[in-house]
Amino acid sequence: MRFLQIGLGSMGKRRVRCLQTLGFKDITAYDPKAQRRTEASKLYGIKTIDRLSEKDLIAADAVLISTPPDRHLEYIKACLRTGKPAFIEASVILKGLPEAAAAADRKGIALCPSCTLSFHPAVKMMAKIVKSRKYGGFTNFSYHSGQYLPDWHPWEAVKSYYVSKKETGGGREIVPFELTWLTQVFGLPSGVAAFHGRTMNVGAPIDDTYALSLKFKRGYGVLIVDVVARCAVRLLVVNLERGQIRWDWDDNSIRVYDARTGKWTQNRFSAGKAASGYNKNITEDMYVEEIGAFVSAARGKRKFPNTMEHDIEVLKVLCRAEGHK
Amino acid sequence: MRFLQIGLGSMGKRRIRCLQRLGFRDITGFDMRADRRDEAARLYGVATTDKVSSELFGLFDAVLISTSPAHHLEYMKMSVESRRPTFIEASILPEGLAAIDRAARKKNVFMAPSCTLMFHPAVKIIKAAVLGGKYGKLTDFSYHSGSYLPDWHPWEPLKGFFASQKKTGACKEIIPVELTWLCDIAGLPARVVSLYGRTTDIGAPIDDTYIIALKFRQGFGALIVDAVSRNAVRRLILNMERGQVIWHWENDWLDIYEASSRKWKRVTFKLGKAEKGYNKSIAESMYLDEIRAFVKGLGNRALYPNTLAKDLGVLSILEKADKKYGPKR
Questions:
Q1: For chain B, first and last CA: distance in Å?
Q2: In terms of CA atoms, which chain A residue is nearest residue B136?
Q3: What is the pLDDT of residues A233-253, one digit of tens each?
Q4: Fewer Cβ neighbours under 10 Å: the N or C end of chain B?
Q5: Could you tell me if the ipTM is greater than 0.85?
Q6: Are B30 and B140 part of one and the same domain?
Q7: Is B309 left (phi over 0), alpha (psi -120 to 50) or beta?
């Protein structure tokens, strides 16, 4: 299979590594920045291009879009024109996506929006437990997802990349990133009440904290996303009618309380290793598995676990949280 | 000193234990229920009465009101009429409270509304960390306070227990309990939005889960209070500009991250023992310290950390939360 990787920033390079881990060698990568092209060809021995034409798209069997989110749409449209299945990194901008999704449906083109955390072993375990109803229905959850924006790319200034822009800001981007898997587990919320804003100087004038109250068909959830947490944190408590789940992403396990026995069990997993320069909990395995799922979808073998329709609904939740209609 | 204990339910009995541990012996307990009076007399050797009035209040040096929240007001009125300094358990209902506050101020009566968690060792450490300035300003926090209503009083049926009534349901009681100490640290929120409702059958027709987003002058907070947590939970993550606090109430420690050194510091404390029948994390020591502060407040009311005015501020948040305050979304 021939792949076209669009964008060679940190995520683009990661996707190249994923493809290579899965055994794919025929990868062409596009980035307008010469330094990135040089680095990628040196590190991964791949062919790079400084201009993207329709010919390049036509020559590929599948495309991976890892540009800043405000550039996704133009490359999605290019994939739609050339009929190429595409993997798209986490979205944060709703505009244009419904039309793109409708066009993809009409043309039968697989557009696969990222849902990385759905491949995290803890998330998979939790989803299975909640959906099994072994401990009854879900009643509520609280989830805090916090990071420190200057720690994202310690090798470059916050202002030099997209997370410093208001529309694609670090905090704003993580809200749908987390909501994607949360809504896969708990469903889409019917009610949203939220605040967001700037609390400190993280090197860019962005909304650094989002506090969301969510009402689901059954149950409630609180989600707080911030990029001001000096130590990165993901802590979750899920209450079920006859149990409780706790997840601390620093542990390679989830803990489950069974109200009938009054006992906790620890479900361990292997999270794998993180790439150099990343937080130890941002392991490569979930990204590799995600690209494996995309390849299957591109080959028409299996459906990708996330859809454009779901992505659009999630982005609508973000808009509602911000007070937009 | 002579104390009048109004209400001899679980909290009333606890307050008697507190007073006795502080060395006070002259305690009279009032309750309309004979079984409760008998039990209190048997367990603690206190005098009891089934009648109460402003005149009776006047015979004591201080009063403690531990009735169900719906009855606080009528006894607080007696306190003001008789000018007796009074400790009041956690309030839920703001109706009439502002008038009582005004009347108490006018007559110079010391009113001490409960703020138990301010005496929790973890809360004291968190407050010092946030207000100490070492870690910069507070940026945000998330706090989950969950318990299972049927576990509150396993020795009695839910029916008849105030926490199982819609108006004074468990969550409505816990929200101000938690907000009292949270707002002591973060200040009163400028805005509140909330969602709440019933998620399952816990044997009482109450709204069993409240989720509240808070916007402070500086920073944000997300609070969830529920009465459906099969395992009781109190879990706080609090971010500051140069630090982070993580607290799980089942631990007798909390962790503070110092961004300057990039290291975690574990701060341990003595939690003390819980009374028989209570969750092990509900240590008696904070109740004892609270009553100690009330007694000190009898001499100098500045030594007691909560006031009716502060309570009213906190209850107004609950009121806003209850109205599903904020834009309809």
A1: 55
A2: A200
A3: 999 999 999 999 999 999 989
A4: N
A5: yes
A6: no
A7: alpha
